[in-house]
């Protein structure tokens, strides 16, 4: 089947020809006719299969030449979980609709709201939005839904994972009951199906890829490595293989920033995108990466949604994700649109649990290759899982020590008697003992913390010791010869 046989307009066919697209992907071949027929659609397709064009093409066809909307009104609404994905969907609308008269715009948080209000004032045919910013604009009477004809939920599974379910339900309650609903997702969990029951009416169900599977053209490799040498191995792989446009996944925003600094120190041009970056910063870094100005892009799972590069050759998991489905999304960034790609995971012993979960879901065992020069110092199975262990709560913040009363009162381990000072930690016990002593004093109000280093605070009036009424005993002081060193 070709696009010419699907009933698309001349303008859309010309735009597709400009992109050298002649044959629809499986998701497009099934979704486009269903959407053009006016039916509700529930489609599951893995990342990189062309599902965005699967709903933007028929949407542009339906809306072209229709009745003009009034101020603040829209005819179609596309909801996405992230700013990057919203921008990518809007770019797709502009690419395919350049020979049409369909008016579209994209709105999301992290930027000023007033320009978005001005755009909506004249009315739109298609609005691409993130749920939070859409609700903000609705509450300011900048957008209305009386003329809405089509609703699209893109990456619905991720929207639920990010906690948007309440905003989505609020938005659904504002929409006219008579409309076409399209639900697209990389995977469908039980929670997604529950949402679909109340949203879709007799939907056409499309399942192009089996549940929780990875793209066939992705070569997956595991490199076991000691955790302390992960960054060194990453730099080694990039330099020795002369890789370019490498997308690296980090589990945390702090980890992403730290990784960029270490790569830059090794002479590798890198940048990071995550939730703590402003939208202009994220847009700039992503643009530099797509244009080849950045060799490496380090991203968190949420920020990576919307990264759409047809020829992205390498995806590296610096950390394995805690959720197996996120692994599917990650490596789906490569091998897009029929291209081939490689997904490399750096496996340290503390992440064996995550690996087993991923292999169980994918029903496969991934190939393990030790890189010469990075042989393990100990077996992976012998490494304790320190990453998933629950962090110990600091006493004084909801986890009191046994025998401890309220702050400032006597404790069993610091017995106070009339005319005697509490015993101090001797200097020969080292910096760690001194730091713990200072931490105990901090909990009683005698120090403050500047970053991770304790700093002396102004002394408060000493509280009398219980039972003897003696208020002359001073608080314990730090030994003059003990140097405080942060152990955090």
Automatic annotation (TrEMBL):
Stretches assigned to the Helicase C-terminal domain: 232-384
SUPFAM superfamilies, per database record: P-loop containing nucleoside triphosphate hydrolases
Stretches with biased composition (Basic and acidic residues): 381-390
UniProt xrefs under PROSITE patterns: DEAD_ATP_HELICASE, HELICASE_ATP_BIND_1, HELICASE_CTER, Q_MOTIF
Domain Helicase ATP-binding: 32-206
UniProt GO cellular component terms: cytosol
Domain DEAD-box RNA helicase Q: 1-29
Entry keyword Hydrolase: yes
GO molecular function: ATP binding; hydrolase activity; nucleic acid binding; RNA helicase activity
Signal sequence residues: none
CDD domains: DEADc, SF2_C_DEAD
Keyword Nucleotide-binding among UniProt keywords: yes
Renumbered residue ranges of the record's region Disordered: 381-488
Keywords of the record: ATP-binding, Cytoplasm, Helicase, Hydrolase, Nucleotide-binding
PANTHER family registered for this protein in UniProt: ATP-DEPENDENT RNA HELICASE RHLE, ATP-DEPENDENT RNA HELICASE RHLE-RELATED
Protein name: ATP-dependent RNA helicase RhlE
